[in-house]
Amino acid sequence: MVAVFASCTNTEKEAALAKQQAMVAVRDSLRLDSFKRAEIVEKERLVEEKHQAELVAARRSGNTTRRSANYSSSGSSYSNNAGTSTSTRRKGWSSAAKGTAIGAGVGALGGVLIDKKDGRGAVIGGLAGAGAGYIIGRDRDKKSGRVQP
User: What is the pLDDT of residue 90?
Assistant: First the structure.
């Protein structure tokens, strides 16, 4: 009788251990699967960024003059395409955004100093300064080539 009970408890322990190991394996595979999906998404994002950069470069090189020369001597050829370049994506604030922020701050400060009634001057000065700052910054962006005219 004792042998029967002992053998029953061993299989229950083994079944519980197997179940626990299966759960750990499922968790690990889910974790691994999520890493694989994240890698795939990252690769797709990089491909899309590269594609966008190529489109921008093609658009910019279409606006410039292209000179192309083919030289051949003894069966070999050399090709030179001037005017094509890879464009890098600019990071940070544009001049228009900087101008808007600075203009709004300066305008609000000036409005408070000029009209001291319940912040009315700050609002009006901030809006006027933001508009002026945006116009000046947008002009700088056009000159630097960040924005096409």
Answer: 63
pLDDT tens for each residue of 57-82: 888 877 554 444 444 444 444 444 44
3-state secondary structure the chain: CHHHHHHHHHHHHHHHHHHHHHHHHHHHHHHHHHHHHHHHHHHHHHHHHHHHHHHHHHHHHHHCCCEEEEEEECCEEEEEEECCCCCCCCCCCCHHHHHHHHHHHHHHHHHHHHCCCCCHHHHHHHHHHHHHHHHHHHHHHHHHCCCCC
This prediction's pTM: 0.40
